UniProtKB/TrEMBL annotation:
Pfam families: MazE_antitoxin
NCBIfam families: lp_hng_hel_AbrB
GO molecular function: DNA binding
Organism of derivation: Thiohalorhabdus methylotrophus
InterPro entries: SpoVT-AbrB_dom, SpoVT-AbrB_sf
Record keywords, A-Z: DNA-binding
Stated name of the protein: AbrB/MazE/SpoVT family DNA-binding domain-containing protein
SpoVT-AbrB domain residues: 1-46
PROSITE patterns documented for this protein: SPOVT_ABRB
Length: 78
């Protein structure tokens, strides 16, 4: 697959590639340069929607002061 670099240095990824990587508008990617000079494109597809429900709900609401105290203590809550 080929792509052309625009005057602004932008590249449009071919649709086949976007579809294969499940990339949509606004998704982010990382470019890694390998030792042999090749470039690897890595999709970063963690959506805030994907994170919903990944943390346990607190048993009670937590105050700002409690959050700040936990941050100062390294998140240990002690």
């Amino acid at each position: 697959m080929d792509a052309i670099i625009s005057s602004k240095g932008q590249i449009t990824l071919p649709k086949v590639l976007r579809d294969q990587l499940h990339l949509t508008t606004g998704d982010r990617v990382t470019f890694l340069m390998e030792e042999d000079g090749s470039i690897r494109l890595i999709p970063k597809q963690v959506s805030i929607k994907d994170l919903k429900g990944s943390l346990p709900k607190p048993e009670r609401p937590v105050s700002i002061e409690e959050m700040e105290r936990a941050i100062e203590q390294g998140g240990s809550g002690q």
